[in-house]
Each structure stands twice: as C-alpha cells, then as structure tokens.
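Hey,

The postdoc asked me to send both predictions to you directly instead of through the lab channel. I've kept everything plain text so nothing gets mangled by the mail client. Protein one:
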Amino acid sequence: MHASFVPPRQVKIGDAAAFVGVTPRAIRHYHAVGLLPEPERGGDGRRRYGYEDLVRLLWVRRMADAGIALEDIRDAADGEAHGRAGGTDIAHVLERLEQSLAAQQAELRHRRTAVRRMRAEGSRLGLLSDFVARRLQDLPDGSLRQADLDSLLVTERVFGPLGAAVQAGRFLALATHPDLRERSDRVDAAEEALDDAVAVDDPRVAQVAAERHAFEEALHARIEDSGLARDDDTLFDAWEALHPAPAPGPGAMSAAAALGKLPHGLSPARLRCMELAAELDAQEPRKSKEPQEP
C-alpha cells in the first residue's frame, strides 16, 4: 500500500468527531460523563484516538440516536467491562425505550387528530373534545359565537366533556332561535351594566335578576319543546357506554378545585344579582306545587 494511503494509528479529536458524525464538544461530554475513557495525549498535549475508541464512539452515537439515555449507555458499558450481563441490561433498557416510544407515538396520533379536527371544524370548535363538538357539528357556519365556544371550553375543563355537551344544548337553542338570542343579549347587557359603580342594594340588581330568571325559564321551556332535553338523556347513556370506569386524565382536578382557581372578574352587584336569580330558581319548584286558585 502506498504510504499516502496508510491511515494514521491515532487521530485527533476533530478527525474522530468528523468520522463518527458528532462534534468535538460531544466527545468531551462523553468523557465527562464516563462514557469514553480519556485517551492518551500526544507530544503536543492533544488527545489521540485509536480504532477501538472510534468503535466505542460509533456505538455510543447509534444508541443515543435511538433515544437511549447516556446514563443507560454508560451503565450497560460498565456492566460489560466488569463481566456482568451487559447485554441483558441493554435489553431491559431497550424494552423500556420501546414502551416510551409507543406512548410518544400514541400522543403524536392524538395531537395529529386534534390538529386535523381544528383544521376541519375551525380552531375554536376544534379545541373541544369530539364528544362536545359532535353535538354542534350540524349547526350552520357562524351560528355559534366565539363567546359560546369559549364558555364550552371552560365548562369542559371544569365539568368534563359530558358537562360541556349538556351545556351545548343551550347554545343549540340560542343558535336556532333568533328571538331567544336577542333576549339573551339584552339580559347579558343588563348584567354587564351592573359594574362596580352599582351598589348591591340598588333596585336594578333585583330587576336584572328577575329578568335573568324569566329568560332562563323561557329558554328551558324552548329546550324541552324542541327535544334537546331528550338528547341530553342520550348523551348520558352514550357517555356511560364510552366511560364505564372513568379515570382521571392528565392535569385532572375536581370541579370544586377548578372553580376555585377560575377568576370571575364580577362586581359585587353582579354577584348579588346571580344570588337573587338562583333564589328565584329555587322557589320555582315550590310555586309549581302550590294549589292554583280557581
């Protein structure tokens, strides 16, 4: 072999890094964490790497590229160096890695499905779970307001998909009955006018509470007449079939805990209005049981 084609017995760190496909900094890190012993230095004080060193570097890089943590690679290498069953150690590491990759793959599928749903249904509606979005899918474009979808998103976080799907019946009624939507807007505007400048005992507070109560009664009656209430029963049956033994998901918390962390930004007058409306709602069943005068 011609002398110009004879490779050197040892190479510098830059050449070793270029051959393996890593950076010199990465090789220095391998030294620091114990993956590769410090090689001998030449007369110029620089590290020199031989054939076995490059084989070890290739081995480390391939395993790291597969997702194996450097500490696991080091432990397996230590086991081999001390005559332990290093192959068995790596087998266990690979088993754990495969399980982790399978979980990551499932998560990626979940994210891709969510992105596809947002593209197909619009970003706001697509943020809701399938269970909620399916109940709204037949509505014409633009019939749902952003505030409606925002409210459903919050409700789903607090009460879960079933609670949001039930609440969706309210927005279905509003979207398909313009007179109810107009009345709802008037009541909402009246409530928003109860700002911090309004005292809690201001007569307007009780008046708006009565308007809210009357509107909710009218909305409930329209929901009953339209058959949306029967759809709610179907929702409960479908949810129980899909979730016979529900388990808490990531970031799960109780509804009470979630409500306790949700800022409302309401004035004292508006909170009092809500209390009065709730009291009127509570009195309604008792009224219905009282005998009517002839």
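Protein two:
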Amino acid sequence: MRAGSARDGQAEPPGDGRPEKADSAVVRDALGVGVAVGLSGFAFGVTSAGSGLSVLQTCALSLLVFTGASQFALVGAIAAGGNPLTAAAGAFFLGVRNSFYGLRLSQLLALPRVVRPFAAHWVIDETTAVSLAQPTRRSARIGFTVTGLTLYVLWNLTTLLGALGAEAIGDTDAWGLDAAGPAVFLALLAPMLRTSTERAVAGIAVILGLGLLPVLPAGVPVLVAALSAPAVLYAEGRRAARRAPGKNPQEDPGKADGRQGEGR
C-alpha cells in the first residue's frame, strides 16, 4: 500500500491530531463491521426471494449492485406492487450517495489508477465509515480493504443462503427480516450525524419518507425524501447570509452611521 502511494507521487497525509493506530487494531475494527453487516445479507436474500425474485436474480443484485440500502429499496418496492422502473429509480438515487463517498475516498486513499475501478465497487457506507475513522492513509487503506473484502464475501454468501432458505422459513413478512438492512444502515449512520444541519436533513427525510408512504406509489417517497438535503442547505445558506457582517446595520456600527463610514 505504501508502494502504491509512492508510485502516485503522493506523500502520506499529515495526521489530524488523532494518535496513530496499530494495523491489528484497524483489522479488528474492520472485521467487526464487515462480519456484523455481512451477516445481514441473509435477510436480504430471504426478503428478495419472498418478493418474487429468483435465486439467480437475488444473487446478481448482491454481486453487481452491492449496496444494501438500494437492494432493500428495490425489492421492497417490488414486493409492495410498485412499478419496476420506479423501484429501480429509487434504488438508483439511493446508490448515488456512493459517488460522493468516492470523491472523498479518492483523495484519502490515493490508490493506483489500475486498482481504482475495482475499489470503486466497494465504495459503500461501511467502507467509507471505517476509512474516514482512521488517522493515516495507511490505516485508511487497510480499513477499506479489510472491510470491503469481508463484507463482499459474507454478504454474497449469506444472500445465497437466504434465498435458498426462503422456502423453509415460510412467510418472510412475519419474521420482519426486511427491516434488518435499514436497521443496520441507521446504526452506522446515527453516530455520523454530529451537526445540527446533518440531524435536520435526517429528520426531515424520515418525516417525508414515512409521511408520504401511504399516499404515494412504492419507491417514490424515497425520491421525495432526498429533497431534504438541498432544502436544509438552502435554508442554512440564507441564514448564514443574513448573519454575515455588513448585512445588518446593528451588527456593523460603521454601516449604521453613514458619516462615520465616509470618514473611514
């Protein structure tokens, strides 16, 4: 990994004040996330098969799409009787967030160009969370690799087992397994909501998603909930502009008195 950094001509980024982390500690944390989330692929396999998808289709989703929230959104919308195109659109927009993760991780990891297309397939919530939690580029690369490999192998294996075992389980809705994926996603997301802006976006998205669920076709509430981010950012921008120096005469004495302003 260090060789890759040297080949790219990029030095190890300076620390951010956090103490360096032993490789074994990074591997331990990455394995913990990979195993915990990877096992929930069983819930996806059961849910997907219970929604009417074949074992082959279910496994193809995990192998090729490999982003749990989007996969659950797709099969959930199909199970609810939604239009396949609407379901796919909802899953697509949920997956778009991985593109923004990639922009950040490309700078953090600085992987060799030949590796990037393969690494891009592992840019998901869990690998991003583990990578960003590391103090150095070396530990971020280790965390990304171990989390991605562990999660990819386990997720696909448990997806297959879940799809094959769906018939033995019987009524999949009675087990509530369709909630396992979103629950894991929320457990990873919650600690990252540190600012009031992030919490506002999450709260409004939940309200829109749940509130519109009974009145809009399956898959559409997810698309509408995505509008919470630009809405909150716009409101924050307007509030910051009003508070900027010079905008309010009471905050800038020089502006309150025109003669003083001219004298300066």
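Summary for protein two, as requested: The two ends are 58 Å apart (CA to CA).

Thanks,
C.
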